[in-house]
Amino acid sequence: MMGTESLQLEDVSNLRVGNSVWVVYTGAQDGEMKFERKITSIDNDTVTLDVPLPEARKSHESRIYLVKIEKKDFISNIVIENLTVTGSGNVR
Questions:
Q1: Which of 32, 75, 88, 89 is most deeply buried (CB count within 10 A of its CB)?
Q2: Average pLDDT, whole number, for the chain?
Q3: Measured between alpha carbons, how far is residue 13 from residues 39, 47, 66, 71 in Å?
Q4: What is the distance between the alpha carbons of residues 55 and 25, in angstroms, rounded to a whole number?
């Protein structure tokens, strides 16, 4: 089941349309879950994302926050050589 694609935040001053962000859910029941999304619009304190977030269990201990992804957080220009993938053969 899909949830919302808009989040109301306390502070959007560091965010811009087009930014890639991690949406992080923290809570006692689910531990921590992260989803990568892109900001498609910002209206006052409401940020709209490109893909709706999955429904998360709500609890009084849950928090949702955004972390802006910086380009330096990614590795680029890598090469993988001699990669072998094995499996059980039960492909569907």
A1: 32
A2: 82
A3: 13, 11, 12, 19
A4: 10
Place of tokens 């330096």: 72
- List, as one string, the DSSP characters of 3-27: --SEEE-S--TT--TT-EEEEEEEE
Instruction: State the average pLDDT over residues 37-47.
Output: 95
| Residues ≥6 apart with Cβ < 8 Å to 23 | 7, 34, 35, 36, 37, 49, 53, 64, 65, 66
DSSP for the chain reads -B--SEEE-S--TT--TT-EEEEEEEETTTEEEEEEEEEEEEETTEEEESSPPBP----TT-EEEEEEPPGGGS--S----S------S---
Q: 28 near 61, Cβ under 8 Å? A: yes
Sole residue written with tokens 């993938």: 85
Structure tokens at 7: 């989040």
Residue type, 76: S
